[in-house]
């Protein structure tokens, strides 16, 4: 059974329909990547799962229970945390205060504490009293990931964690993913960089114009398949 699943998921912004019946699943201990061009609906999918956008109850299920109609804080309390696109830190708060926000509403103790987050990203321990604004983009991204981990999630949703970062910084951040996985989280990673997605994921879904156009394991998807699913068949 899937740990998290969407079935026939649709989403609208006013009259505009952004998702048209999306079916994906995430199994226990898996890392799934969602790839696709700008505007494909990847962020909308993450926001729908996290409860930022409300849906039909049955269109999202977690651990066998329908959660599609629940609010974001209820979903988070059950163990689904999101690292949002654009990081969304509180700029006037310190690194440590931003991390501690992740414990709000947490119901379970687990692997992730300030100590283990600082072990994962040692630079954050050095900067613990600095305000969010005094950090580089990569360090801010580490705080955003750490803050989500502080809730000890069973599922971590990461929306474009490499956006706008230099390749060497992206490498540093992606180095953390196997450790997050080893600590017990299943993950959905939204990524525009196909090679990065392929390197980190057990399975990949490609989206185009609000629909899943391809899915498979990195080994069994060819470059042509991905190109067609990403941009449309030529
Ligand atoms: P990106 O890589 O640019 O973040 P994406 O695949 O995450 O793209 P979404 O952000 O989910 O795509 O957008 C899907 C569609 O919904 C796009 O056509 C976008 O213009 C539209 N959209 C997204 N957010 C809103 C909003 N708040 N109001 C209206 N339309 C929106």
UniProtKB/TrEMBL annotation:
Pfam families to which the protein is assigned, alphabetical: ABC_tran (PF00005)
Entry-linked SMART domains: AAA
Molecular function GO terms recorded: ATP binding; ATP hydrolysis activity; branched-chain amino acid transmembrane transporter activity
Domain called ABC transporter: residue spans: 4-234
Record's keyword terms, sorted: Amino-acid transport, ATP-binding, Nucleotide-binding, Transport
GO biological process: L-amino acid transport
Tree of life domain: Bacteria
InterPro entries: AAA+_ATPase, ABC_transporter-like_ATP-bd, ABC_transporter-like_CS, BCAA_Transport_ATP-bd_LivF, P-loop_NTPase
Xref: PANTHER family: HIGH-AFFINITY BRANCHED-CHAIN AMINO ACID TRANSPORT ATP-BINDING PROTEIN (PTHR43820:SF5), HIGH-AFFINITY BRANCHED-CHAIN AMINO ACID TRANSPORT ATP-BINDING PROTEIN LIVF (PTHR43820)
UniProt record similarity statement: Belongs to the ABC transporter superfamily.
Protein name: Branched-chain amino acid transport system ATP-binding protein
